[in-house]
Amino acid sequence: MADITIMKTPAETGLAQLFESLKGSLPGDLSVRETAMAGFAERGLPHRRIEEFKYTDLRALLREAAPFAEKPGSAELAVAFNHAKAFTGLAAARLTIVNGHVATELSEATAFPAGVEVASMNEALARGHALLGWLGAVEAARGNPVYELNTAFMADGAVIRIPAGTAVEQPLHLRFVNSGSQAFATATRVLVVVEEGASVTVLESHEGPDGLACQPNDVIEFVVGDRARVRHVRLNAEGRDALALSTLTARLGAEVSFNTINVVSGAQVSRHQVFVTFAGENSTARIDGANLLRGRQHADATLLVDHAVPHCTSRELYKTVIDDEATGIFQGKIIVRPDAQKTDGGMKSDALLLSERATMNNKPELEIFADDVVCGHGATCGALDEDLLFYLRSRGLPAAEAESLLLQAFLGQAVETVENEAVHDALVEVVEGWLQARH
Amino acid sequence: MLEIRNLVVQIEDNRILNGLNLTVHDGEVAAIMGPNGSGKSTLSYVIAGKEDYEVLDGEIVLDGQNLLEMEPDQRAAAGVFLAFQYPLEIPGVGTMTFLKAALNAQRKARGEPELTTPELMKRVNAVGEKLEISRDFLKRALNVGFSGGEKKRMEILQMALLEPKFCILDETDSGLDIDALRIVSEGVNALRSPDRSFLVITHYQRLLNHIVPDTVHVMSSGRIVRSGGKELALELEANGYADYRQQAEAA
């Protein structure tokens, strides 16, 4: 019998070599990284025959593993700062992360109420921060290859703790900026522990210049205590040549209210993975998204909502607008465990195709093992309604303006779930900016 | 005002208008009546510029401008307004946002200064009051969740606000109860003026008791087969369209 050797791609070999050369200098417990890297090495980069990655074949898309970025110096920080435009008009406490490393020089973490704890992940790992036990709290994410790579390579990020009962009024803005001219990779990890009865709004922006082939792999993990309230808004405005992988995990206690929205206008290729687990009863989660794609952009949203306990409600609403030859992907799965009676789950993905060469792949799934639940899903895909366009034009709106108004309304249905008015308005501006660039 | 000459129109190889001729003078209210399928709604869409229709021959001239060469929005800016038989619901577009965008787009096209929001609010509220449209409606998405009658009133509100010179009412009476019919008719009558003309498309005489026309035209198989004064509508109501169907088939 012949031995079977699985051929490794140059990127897989490159990642293994990078790990060998970096592992001595990465902070924290090496065995955790080694376990993750071994798990990754066993299966390799996911490809289209792996169902979860059917539409985003990373083996084909990630041709070469770029080296991980060094901590930038002050001159590089100044250049990077020019790329940081998102949410700048908002009053917020800011933590800036440049090329995957916290830049304390550019952070404005002055406005936190007493007790709110923010530490860099690099230091937290090196010192063995007490909250690190919460990393990987959502089991379903742990075997995911993108998450495993992040665990193996994570170099910095943040550990944030909102103490019990604390209502943080001002949003906390995690500002990720990638800057430079040579291709590089980053692996950041943010852990947000929101204790019982606390509330917080977390904003994430991810930006960088066009022409920079960066490969960010960002993970944010929320551990949400009973009766806590979390609002999370993420903006992917990466440069046009970025390959951006991101993962959000959330473990929700009882009577929690958790909302997250991901708005994508940037990156050549992006994949945003969401793993939400209901671990306590009577909680509610919204997972929304608005993807604005043009050129040859490829944006994947893959969501997994695990109703492990009864009496929880989840809603997903994704709106995707696709122009030119771009591709949108929505894969949403709701799992209702045998005990999770009275689950209320609803998932919807709507796409508008503005060009004949635009592509949308919609794959909503329900796996229901309980018998007393209300769950539904829907997906639509189509062009702008000609009759609506005519109605608007018959009232005097030129074609371009009529189209913009309809697209704004379409995307607005996802964006309007953001309750914070200033944040909502900032997202509307992103949408308007994208629409204006169309004409 | 409006001159239609030998208009021939088809949709997907289906001939709908067969050499239609019609003249509407300044300040005139012209009613078009006719059986189902005679091409009345097609005529209204072709004047407003809907793209699904293929114009094979003829012309439509509004005060010297050839409408067939203009985009729908250019026609609107030139003074054409179509009150839809079935006004569309536009989720996510606020009524005020829409009204402001429409009015200012037309003003811009005509080289007039744009209206500010307070100026617009004042005008909208004044018109809305006459049409008994509650201010709550103006806060909602356009026509979403409106009843048939409310949608028709919203059409007339748009008409009053945009001040077109050539108004087409496509079966505005369909789906209206007696009270709504009165409110809508009063709204239309208030807009009658020597430099504004109307094309009122309807199946029934009923609407014409409220909006009294100057001329009545009978349409059948894609052309005007008879024209007369307002008394013609009464005759149709009494005798039906049977004579005209036969006439059209014979021709």
UniProtKB/TrEMBL annotation, chain A:
Superkingdom of the organism of origin: Bacteria
Pfam family membership, one: SufBD_N
SUF system FeS cluster assembly SufBD N-terminal domain mapped to chain residues: 31-173
GO biological process terms held by the UniProt record: iron-sulfur cluster assembly
Domain named SUF system FeS cluster assembly SufBD core: residues: 182-410
Matching NCBIfam families: sufD
Family under the similarity heading: Belongs to the iron-sulfur cluster assembly SufBD family.
Name of the protein this chain belongs to: Fe-S cluster assembly protein SufD
Species of the source: Enterovirga aerilata
Lineage: Bacteria, Pseudomonadati, Pseudomonadota, Alphaproteobacteria, Hyphomicrobiales
UniProtKB/TrEMBL annotation, chain B:
Family, similarity comment: Belongs to the ABC transporter superfamily. Ycf16 family.
Short name of one Pfam family: ABC_tran
Span of domain ABC transporter: 2-246
PANTHER family to which the protein is assigned, alphabetical: ABC TRANSPORTER I FAMILY MEMBER 6, CHLOROPLASTIC
InterPro entries: AAA+_ATPase (IPR003593), ABC_transporter-like_ATP-bd (IPR003439), ABC_transporter-like_CS (IPR017871), FeS-cluster_ATPase_SufC (IPR010230), P-loop_NTPase (IPR027417)
Protein name: Fe-S cluster assembly ATPase SufC
Keywords: ATP-binding, Nucleotide-binding
PROSITE patterns: ABC_TRANSPORTER_1, ABC_TRANSPORTER_2
Origin species: Enterovirga aerilata
The keyword Ribonucleoprotein appears for this protein: no
